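Backbone-to-sequence.
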C-alpha cells in the first residue's frame, strides 16, 4: 500500500477502505507520509467527497489518534453542546448553568477562538482567577459535585484532527461536509458525553452560508453521532446578525449573566431555552420539551440558574461573582457606529462585526495572539428596530484606537436601512434528528 495509490483512487472517485484510511492517518502522524502527499489526498477528497462509511472510518481514526476521556463515573446522563461558531455566540455560558440547575449534568470541554469566532475558554478566562485547565479527575469531580464544568481539552485529545485541520486550513480544504463532520464528532466522542446537541449556524456570520449547506452538515453530524451510539440532534440557527447584543469576552460573560437573571436579549434567551429543552429530553430528564422548557424558565425565575453559574466559576477559582462581573469595566469606549439615515435596520453584516471585534482586541488570528478581555462590541440596535439618523447602533470598546475610523467605516458599509418595517431574522430554522 502506498499513499500515491490512495490519491489516485480518490482522484477518480473510488472509495477508500478502512485499512487504507488507517494507513493514511497513522502514516501521517508518524511522519512517514508527508504534508504534500496528504494535501493532494485532501484535495481529491474535497472534490470527490467521502461516503458514510469512509466518514465513519476517518472519524474513528481521528478519535483513536490520542486519548479518550472516560466520564462513566459521572452520575446520570451527561450532556454536551457544540456550536459550529458564530458572532456573539454566548450560548454555552447560559446553557450549562440552565441545564445543570434543572438537574442534568453538563460536562463540556471546549476550545479557544480563532478569527472572528469567539472561544468559550477565552470568555471564561475574562473572569479574574478562573482556570479552565482542569485535570480529567478534577473535571469529573466538579461535575459530580455541582453538575457543571466547562474546561479546556486535554493536550492529547484527537492529535490527528489537530494536525489534519492545520493542513486543511493551509490548503483551503476546510469546507467539506465529511471532513467537517469527522473533525467535530471525533473530538466530541473522545470527550465522552452521552447526549450531544449541535447548534449549526447558518448565514453571513457563520461557516455555513446557506440553509442547504447547514442541513447537509447537520444530517451528516447526526448520522455519524448515531453510528457511534451517541444520542445526537442538531438545531440549525440563524447567524445573519450577531446573537444577542454583545460580541467579545467579558462583555459576553456579562450578557450571559443578564440572561441567567432574566434580563438579557430575547434572542439569546430563546435559543438557550430551546437548546436546553431539547437536550433535557435527549438526556431523558423530561418526556416532553414543553415540560423541560417550563423547568428551565423556572430556574431563571427562582435564581437557581444564576446560582449554578456562581458555583461553577467559584469551583474553577474565580475571585469574583456574577454581580462583581456585571460591575466590572470594559476597555475604553473608542467609538460609535451611528445610523446614516432614518428608517429600520435591514441588515447588519455579522461577519464584519465579528472581524471588527477581533481587530479591537477581542479575538486572534493565531493562537499566539494576546486577547484583551475587555474589548468588544455592544449592539444598541438590531435588525428590525427603528433608528433615527445619528443614533448610536454599535459601541466599540478596546485599547488601541489606531484602526478605529477604518473599523467604523467597514461596519457602516455592511449596514442597510429600509423605510418600511423589517422583520427580525427567524432564529431557529430547522431541527435534524
Amino acid at each position: 500500500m502506498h499513499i500515491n495509490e490512495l490519491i489516485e483512487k480518490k482522484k477518480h472517485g473510488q472509495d477508500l477502505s478502512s485499512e487504507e484510511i488507517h494507513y493514511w492517518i497513522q502514516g501521517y502522524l508518524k511522519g512517514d507520509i508527508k504534508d504534500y502527499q496528504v494535501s493532494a489526498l485532501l484535495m481529491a477528497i474535497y472534490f470527490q467527497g467521502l461516503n458514510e462509511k469512509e466518514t465513519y472510518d476517518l472519524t474513528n481514526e481521528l478519535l483513536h489518534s490520542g486519548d479518550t476521556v472516560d466520564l462513566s463515573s459521572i452520575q446520570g446522563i451527561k450532556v454536551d453542546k457544540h456550536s459550529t461558531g458564530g458572532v456573539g455566540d454566548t450560548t454555552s455560558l447560559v446553557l450549562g448553568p440552565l441545564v445543570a440547575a434543572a438537574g442534568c449534568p453538563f460536562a463540556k470541554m471546549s476550545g479557544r477562538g480563532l478569527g472572528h469566532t469567539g472561544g468559550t475558554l477565552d470568555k471564561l478566562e475574562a473572569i479574574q482567577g478562573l482556570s479552565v485547565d482542569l485535570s480529567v479527575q478534577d473535571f469529573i469531580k466538579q461535575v459530580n459535585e455541582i453538575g457543571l464544568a466547562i474546561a479546556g481539552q486535554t493536550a492529547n485529545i484527537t492529535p490527528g484532527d489537530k494536525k489534519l485541520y492545520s493542513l486543511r486550513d493551509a490548503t483551503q480544504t476546510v469546507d467539506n461536509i465529511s471532513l467537517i463532520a469527522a473533525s467535530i464528532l471525533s473530538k466530541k466522542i473522545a470527550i465522552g458525553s452521552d447526549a450531544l446537541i449541535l447548534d449549526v449556524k447558518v448565514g453571513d456570520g457563520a461557516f455555513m452560508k446557506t440553509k442547504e449547506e447547514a442541513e447537509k452538515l447537520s444530517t451528516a453530524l447526526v448520522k455519524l453521532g448515531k453510528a457511534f451510539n451517541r444520542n445526537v440532534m442538531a438545531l440549525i440557527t440563524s447567524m445573519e446578525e450577531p446573537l444577542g447584543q454583545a460580541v467579545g469576552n467579558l462583555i459576553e460573560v456579562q450578557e450571559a449573566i443578564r440572561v441567567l437573571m432574566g434580563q438579557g436579549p430575547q434572542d439569546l434567551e430563546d435559543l438557550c431555552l430551546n437548546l436546553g429543552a431539547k437536550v433535557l429530553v435527549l438526556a431523558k430528564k423530561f418526556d416532553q420539551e414543553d415540560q423541560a422548557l417550563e423547568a428551565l424558565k423556572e430556574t431563571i425565575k427562582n435564581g437557581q440558574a444564576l446560582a449554578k453559574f456562581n458555583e461553577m466559576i467559584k469551583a474553577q477559582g474565580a475571585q469574583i461573582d456574577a454581580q462583581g462581573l456585571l460591575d466590572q469595566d470594559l476597555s475604553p469606549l473608542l467609538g460609535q457606529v451611528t445610523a446614516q439615515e432614518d428608517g429600520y435596520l435591514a441588515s447588519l453584516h455579522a461577519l464584519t462585526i465579528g472581524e471588527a471585534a477581533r481587530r479591537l482586541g477581542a479575538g486572534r488570528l493565531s493562537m499566539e495572539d494576546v486577547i484583551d478581555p475587555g474589548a468588544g462590541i455592544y449592539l444598541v440596535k438590531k435588525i428590525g428596530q427603528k433608528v433615527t439618523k445619528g443614533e448610536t447602533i454599535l459601541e466599540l470598546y478596546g485599547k488601541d484606537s489606531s484602526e478605529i475610523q477604518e473599523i467604523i467605516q467597514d461596519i457602516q458599509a455592511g449596514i442597510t436601512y429600509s423605510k418600511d418595517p423589517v422583520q427580525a431574522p427567524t432564529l431557529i430554522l430547522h431541527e435534524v434528528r
